[in-house]
Amino acid sequence: MSQPNNRVRLACLTFPNLALVLALRVHPELSGEPVLVGGQGPAGRQVVVAASPSAWAQGVRPGQDWRRAEVLCPLAVKLTADPAAVAELRRNARLALASCSPLVEWGDDASAYVDLAGSDPLRSEEGSRAGHCGRSLQEALGVTPSVGVGPSRFSAWAAAQLAAPGRVHLVPEGKAAEFLATWPVTALPIPPAVAERLIQFGLRTCGDCASITMVDLQRQFGPDGILLHRLCRGLDSARIDPWREPPPCGVRRVLAGGVEDSESLRFGAAELARGLAQELSRQGRAAGRIRLVLRGEGEPKQPAQTDRQVWWGEVAPPTPMATADELMRPLLSLFGRARPLTPVTVVELEAFDLVAPPVSQVGLWQGRAVDREVVQRAVDRLHDRFGRGLVWRVEVRPGHPGDVPEERFVWSSR
Predict the structure, then answer these.
(1) What is the pLDDT of residues 365-394, one digit of tens each?
(2) What pTM was estimated for this model as a whole?
(3) Which of 25, 40, 134, 348 is such that its CA lies 20 to 30 A from the CA of 295?
(4) Alpha carbons 103 and 160: distance in angstroms, whole number
(5) Is 250-355 in the same CATH topology as 18-84?
């Protein structure tokens, strides 16, 4: 069954830093060797942009001063990052994940988060959807990511650390605290000083901290104590800060005011269908899958939905869609399933799995299919069905027949 929209489930994908991925594409012989990829830091000084696992084992970390990294790993091969190539690879990776979900947050060029809410017509199981995200990213990067799924950002990240490349590790629903019980506090996204004090108190794992009340943790660590309490129980924020870029094919409409019921939104379905059909026609493509995205602002209708202000759903009909009439039926079915969580202010309709439009008799007359072989196959089908006298071939009479049509053209059923 599809995941309900009020369930928070995040997929975390981890992979080698993009700068390292590009470096190893150029120098595949360095795979397994200590490699440092450098670039310009915020202050204009050279810093480490990416490091191979062998360099990590010797203490090198991204953002580290270049000279410090050379001291820690003197035998490493030193390369320079190409910012333009990294930016292009980053964009391709983001677009690949955006085809899986409209809620994608890009991390530090070595991780990304995807909200698995919404409805996928092809993959109803959570593990299948997370695996699809991993495969899409693999096609864009050329490397295999690890995927973890959990109810919060940290639990999903922790699950990804346990997943082998190409695998998905799921944190069972309601079992986040149990899953995180053995994780060391040094792995938590908290200030190092807080982690050091926890170790001094004998609290070395998330399970140790979970046994202490939030009031006591807050008394000792202030606001960091509240964050620590939530992290150890898998209750930290799962809100996605989505990366936004127009899809390869889609239309977007901003409403004059917030609309709260899906029935009112259905009145705009025809305009959306026409707009997307025009965009598909401009690109000469048909959509194998469409996605409806409803974005809102303001307070959600239910307190449990504070981390999500987007509803989305997808549909994949048996045949590709190219015209407004073909788009209307699946689009109306999406509006019928829509359950906006906040008043809707933006409606988006996006097309994916683009293919060549199906050939029809109307399309032939409109000039959309001009390939000679396509036309000949259509004529042959008509001959087989209705006889050879139905479709005639027109040819120009040899010589100089003049401009009179009856003298210029020759018609035959051959």
Answers:
(1) 455 545 566 666 667 777 777 776 666 666
(2) 0.78
(3) 134
(4) 18
(5) no
Identity (one letter) of the amino acid at 310?
V
Q: CATH 3.30.70.270: does it fit domain 10-15+86-177? A: yes
The whole-angstrom separation of Cα 221 and Cα 315 is 48
Q: How many whole angstroms separate alpha carbon 90 and alpha carbon 49?
A: 14
Written as one letter, the residue type at 255 is L
pLDDT above 70 for 290: yes
* Beta carbons within 8 Å of 133's beta carbon, 6+ residues apart: 11, 13, 97, 100, 101, 114, 147
Cα(270)–Cα(262) distance, integer angstroms: 14
Q: Where are the domains of the chain?
A: 10-15+86-177, 18-84, 190-230, 250-355, 361-412
CATH class of 18-84: alpha beta
3-class SS letters over the chain: CCCCCCCCCEEEEECCCHHHHHHHHHCHHHCCCCEEEEEECCCCCEEEEEECHHHHCCCCCCCCEHHHHHHHCCCCEEEECCHHHHHHHHHHHHHHHHCCCCCEEECCCCEEEEECCCECCCCCCHHHHHHHHHHHHHHHHCCCCEEEEECCHHHHHHHHHHCCCCCEEECCCCCHHHHHCCCEHHHCCCCHHHHHHHHHCCCCEHHHHHCCCHHHHHHHHCHHHHHHHHHHCCCCCCCCCCCCCCCCCEEEEEEEEEECCHHHHHHHHHHHHHHHHHHHHHHCCEEEEEEEEEEECCCCCCHHHCCCCEEEEEECCCCCECCHHHHHHHHHHHHHHCCCCCCEEEEEEEEEEEECCCCCHHHHHCCCCCCHHHHHHHHHHHHHHHCCCCCCEEEECCCCCCCCHHHHEEEECC
Q: Identify the residue with better confidence: 287 or 340.
A: 287
Residue pair 15/89 in contact (Cβ under 8 Å)? The answer is no
